[in-house]
């Protein structure tokens, strides 16, 4: 989709066109649009399955969570590259999100409330040493424990260089025995 035109009838990258077809929206791609807050009309997107708000460094994540917490079909939330230093405790309100992408941020821990995300299956970070891999061991172990029904995943965000992945694979799971120092 370019310039607000719809390529896939369920994929939108413009809030105005999404608001005009609220029941059709399954994927809303709002990456790098300088967004600080989303309008309350996002609550009308009852069939929304994936929300990508990556690359919006001024995004008020707590406000976003309050606006999307009741979207029962929302399974994937991409908050990558939003320059987050912390994740608000309100994240626990996202009961239906299964995949939470937190890559390319400045996080050093996860809030305890992430445990309340009962559908959460994956918390995604990049494989870079500056991300999850640099967290203190105790915080890594705590993060693994906070996602009891899923996994912390380290993704090679650029798909490897010359066929090589940083940690040997495109996706690796973090476990209490494999913290990927």
TrEMBL record:
This is Leucine-rich repeat domain-containing protein. Transmembrane segments: none annotated. SUPFAM superfamilies: L domain-like (SSF52058). The keyword Nucleotide-binding does not apply. The keyword Heme does not apply. Keywords: Leucine-rich repeat, Repeat. PROSITE patterns: LRR. It holds the Pfam family LRR_8.
